[in-house]
Amino acid sequence: MKSYRLFSKLLLVSISVGALAMTGCDKDDDDKPVQRNITEIVVNDPQLTLLEAAVVKAGLANTLATTANLTVFAPDDAAFKKVDLNGDGTPDLDTEAKINALDADGVSLLTGVLQYHVLGSKVMAADVPAGPNAAITTLGGKQVFATSNSTGVYINGVKVNKADVMATNGVIHVIDRVLMPPAGNIVQTASANPNFTYLVAAVQRAGSDIVNALTAAGPLTVFAPTNQAFIDAGFPTIASIQAADPNTLKPILLYHVVGARVFSSDLTEGAQPTTAGGGKVTITLSGGPKVKGNGNPSASNIVATDIVTTNGVIHVIDRVLLP
């Protein structure tokens, strides 16, 4: 660890000698002009060691040190420890050693993820509009969605825990989740996730109208039941879904779709958004976010939130919603 951080710091010295100017600062320096660039701030923050390793591995240290007027949403170490970059079910960015060992494909994925955290203009917390979800294009060309409300500032539904960390070339906002760029539309994203095998089968069985609705431009929000949710709802196998009446599946599936981009930060207690099928679902937040269908005796837990797609957002639920 010490040798790695020494290497990183030597690398950054070649980028900017300003890193040395900050050594031995005391609290009186708080009143002095900002002297560190974004890369230097990341290197010197003990809560951003994995971001530092990722930035160096992806070859973005120079970009974040020398490009003017950037905004970086900086995931802390706890955020990196949750990331399953390759989709194999295990964290693969939770140590510096794993980050350093990424192969070329892994580095390509990592670079895209990091670029998704960088805006090409300086956006202070006070600049974020009061919702909902203003679209901002990132360094990698994909959009993130920023919202400001009474509880704070959010990006893709993720709360900014520490805002407006000023750098000589921009600003950093610290967040506790890594933002994953969208890899496809709702159907494509669900198809790539083994937890949604039954859902994808149901969409296909329901027919082209449902497929077309979920691949349209949107924006849409889908409350996506897990495989176990379908099993609990009386579909024990994929074959049972494939044998189901499409006219039975269609209204159920439409009842899981809202015709707007709704992140977890947009959910409010008692809200009743109207679904694509015309009925309403009820949101509750006490004890964790939940959504209840009119025909459900109890609410479904929202077990994972804010999976961003090119045409909306997915929230994972543990029960099938019934109209």
From TrEMBL:
PROSITE patterns: FAS1, PROKAR_LIPOPROTEIN. Residues 1-21 form the signal peptide. Pfam families: Fasciclin. Residues 35-179, 183-321 form the FAS1 domain. One of its GO terms (cellular component) is extracellular space. Keywords: Signal. It comes from the Bacteria. InterPro entries: Adhesion/Biosynth-related, FAS1_dom_sf, FAS1_domain. PANTHER family: FI19380P1, PERIOSTIN-RELATED. This is FAS1 domain-containing protein. The lineage of its organism: Bacteria, Pseudomonadati, Bacteroidota, Chitinophagia, Chitinophagales.
